[in-house]
Amino acid sequence: MIIQPKIRGFICTTAHPDGCAANVREQIAYVKARPPLANPPKKVLVIGASTGYGLASRIVPAFGGGAATVGVFFEKPGEENRTGSAGWYNSVAFEEAAGEAGLYARSFNGDAFSSEMKRQVIDAIKADLGQVDCVIYSLASPRRTDPDTGEVYKSVLKPIGAPYSQKNVNTDKAEVNSVTIEPANDDEIAQTVKVMGGEDWELWLGALADAGALAEGATTVAYSYIGPDLTWKIYTEGTIGMAKKHLEESAARLNAKFGAGTAHVSVNKALVTQASSAIPVVPLYISLLYRVMKEKGTHEGCIEQIARLFADHLAVPGGPSQLDEKDRIRIDDWEMEDDIQAAVADLWAKVDTENLRQISDFDGYQREFLRLFGFGLEGVNYEAEADPVRGLPSA
Ligand code: NAI
After folding, report:
1. Which tens digits make up the pLDDT trace of 114-148?
2. Tag placement on the chain: N or C end, fewer CB within 10 Å?
3. pTM above 0.85, yes or no
4. How far is CA 201 from CA 217, 225, 265, 317, in A?
5. Which atom of ligand 1 is least distant from the CA of 225?
6. Do residues 43 and 35 lie in contact, with contact meaning Cβ atoms separated by under 8 Å?
7. pLDDT tens column, 273-283
């Protein structure tokens, strides 16, 4: 079939298999062009491995350090007349490239929150690798089914305590408007913490350890975000922020259980991903941030961020140094530089529909968004027939 983007609000319902493969190959090439990691983990489990930060977290240890990787994700394979999801095609392309490079790679498609998935993955780790020495937790999900009770929890992106009004961009219409979001109630806050907090991260580590599949001295990292005060009400001080606070508490509990230095929260940069495009206000902030960081020459995407995370923190002898006052790794350091934030705040006050394309990198935002789904990649013929059915080599 001829595969074109079909955008519905903040998601694209189609994905191009060859475009996704080109995207993955670009990320691999970036990693291979860097110096190899000094002290890389050798057997890495990535939970949420198919897109965004998780995909980059699979590529970096594999191609920068020769690691065997096990990936877990929730994606849709393609059918004869319907495209699969981008994460499916990314994972197929990753496994193909890993195979060509002689690297072990195995993937599991299904619900990472379930006990059954944990059992399957751990069985495979025990059979094929024995143990893992690094676990990356990079899930972003709107819902979670509790593995014990079967109850379904839903996460919401809302402020807490009072309504929040802020500028926002309608990405379909390229219009800057104002959005008002009503505050979450207590139940919505609790449900968001259930989905996006650290409970499932702790369950994974516990299950791995109980099965003897976690190596002595293994490390684990989960991802968080802080950002500037203009997004605090919807992010850091909102429902998702409460979940991220819980994630930090989980890191402390994991360290108490498995030894100091086992678990880390890494605060990452705001980037265009499927998860972040669903958050109100954030796409406009990202459009301005990209503009300012590109001008300064410090812009990074997921692969650059995660390459830096491993090179400077996770793959250095002795483990991460330079943690912040709450023991977090900060690879959002360049985003949070004073001059960057001052320039963004200045542009934020001025941005409107008329000047959106002049003063922000909204065009770059839209290009990046399409690339998430494999569109707009160089060297891909989008007019040609493409087979949407692609199989995972390890399946
Ligand atoms: P993403 O949407 O690109 O990736 C989410 C991953 O989770 C995918 O691999 C997806 O298949 C997987 N997934 C979702 N539900 C699942 C389930 N039930 N079972 C198995 N896999 C499932 O998201 P992104 O942006 O890479 O987010 C990853 C983490 O990074 C999140 O914790 C997010 O809060 C954090 N983060 C994101 C930032 C951003 O700007 N995008 C900034 C800082 C942190």
Report:
1. 999 999 999 999 999 999 999 999 999 999 999 99
2. C
3. yes
4. 17, 17, 11, 25
5. 43
6. no
7. 988 988 889 99
SS3 of 82-145: the string is ECCCHHHHHHHHHHHHHHHCCCCEEEEECCCCCHHHHHHHHHHHHHHCCCEEEEEECCCCCEEE
235 given a catalytic annotation = yes
**Residue-level pLDDT at 319:** 83
Mean pLDDT for 5-27 is: 95
Residue with tokens 């394309």: 357
Residues flanking ligand 1, CB < 6 Å: 48-54, 72-75, 87, 111-113, 138-141, 223-225, 268, 270-271, 273-276
> Residue 349: is its pLDDT beyond 80?
yes
**Helix/strand/coil percent split, the chain, to 5:** 40, 15, 40
- Pure H helices in the chain: 17-32, 52-65, 86-100, 115-128, 186-196, 199-210, 229-232, 239-258, 282-296, 302-309, 338-350, 356-359, 362-372
Q: Look up the CATH superfamily of 7-142+153-161+186-278+301-332.
A: NAD(P)-binding Rossmann-like Domain (3.40.50.720)
